[in-house]
Amino acid sequence: MKEILEKAIGSLTPERREEALTHVSYANEVSSPVNNERLEFLGDAVLYLAVGHILYERYPGLAEGDLTRMRASLVSGAKLAEIALAGGLGDLIKLGRGESASGGRRRPSVLGSALEAVIGAVFLEHGWDKALGLVREIFEGQLPESVPVDPKTRVQELVQREPGSTLEYRVINVEGPDHLRTYSVACVINGKVVSTGSGSSKKEAEERAAEAYLRTITETSR
Questions:
Q1: What pLDDT sits at residue 162?
Q2: 210 shares a domain with 127
Q3: Are 180 and 120 within one domain?
Q4: 40, 116, 204, 211: the active-site residue
Q5: Residue 188 and residue 117 share a domain
Q6: Whether residue 44 lies in the annotated active site
Q7: Both 11 and 84 in a single domain?
Q8: What pLDDT, in 10s, does the model give residues 182-213?
Q9: In the chain, which residues have pLDDT < 70?
Q10: pLDDT value at residue 148
């Protein structure tokens, strides 16, 4: 994985490489307008499309719902952080002193965002084919043998068994500076809070809340 990411980063112009690998905490510290948040936004969209394209080709017999579950498992924050960590991306990111001292180089949200930023940068500089090729290399050998069920999907399936039931994830608290946020999210079913979860992004907090609810109903059924 390290060679794959090093090759991708090495193909970028110095300016684009700087943008992709600069965390907002560093930019704030040195009063620079350059950070990787915009590239992360673009890379997230490219990643979703590329993974969807790959899965559509690889599994011609799977229904839309199964393909969606597969994609969700592959582009989850935990999976992206795992890939970025294995590729040594944490050592290349420019971080502010506080973020670095608090373990930012191994923080899932920082790692996942940097990986998405690199993918976005490759798309901007080299186009769709190169970006798709990079995503293929990244996920080579990691495509699931069977359809996984992530916690949020599992909760949604349980709720949908009861006609008319509703499910939402509601942010109940946000703490910390912009580059070091902690989100608390409530899993709300039929207007009632059934569990809560926290994480460094809303997505991660929602996953934790879903996991907490699944643990609750599992323990209750014992």
A1: 87
A2: no
A3: no
A4: 116
A5: no
A6: yes
A7: yes
A8: 899 999 999 999 999 998 888 889 989 998 99
A9: 146, 148-149, 219-222
A10: 66
Mean pLDDT, all residues of the chain: 90
Q: Is 215 part of a structural domain of the chain?
A: yes
Q: Could you say which of 44, 99, 204, 211 is catalytic?
A: 44
pLDDT at 190: 94
Q: Catalytic annotation on 116?
A: yes
Range of the domain at 195: 151-220
Per the structure, how many domains does the chain have?
Answer: 2
pLDDT of res. 204: 86
Q: Is residue 145 part of a domain?
A: no
Q: Which CATH number fits the domain that encloses residue 116?
A: 1.10.1520.10
pTM of the model: 0.72
In total, the chain counts a number of residues equal to 222
Say which CATH number the domain at 157 has: 3.30.160.20
